[in-house]
Amino acid sequence: MDNYEFSPEQNHKIAELSVRLRHFSIVLGVVGGLVFLNGLARWSTLGVQQGLLTVLGGLIIAGGAYLYSRPLDNFRNIIDLEGRDIEELITAMSDLVLAFKILQFIVMAITLLVCVRLALLFTT
Prior knowledge:
Elements: H1 8-41, H2 43-46, H3 48-69, H4 72-80, H5 85-123
């Protein structure tokens, strides 16, 4: 297989994506950390169930930050190294697909829980 090298313009687009993904990961990490700390700080006022859900929610959000930061090294390698652009891109895309699948599952689960909660609210 011939080694494909992205053009400087393509590398610039990959660098832009990498910066935006890094910022998104940082925001997720900060939000996850704040939610986690909020759950710990307000545990006694929230109650055990709500406190536990808040702490777990913070950990899940922080885990999302990790998942979205995984492809960053691969994107950096595409820009910095020669001869492995396609392999690095495939690895980065696989990591992004995993992150989006997990995010999709979480959103679907939350939507289902909200629908069940609303159904219970209107039937009682």
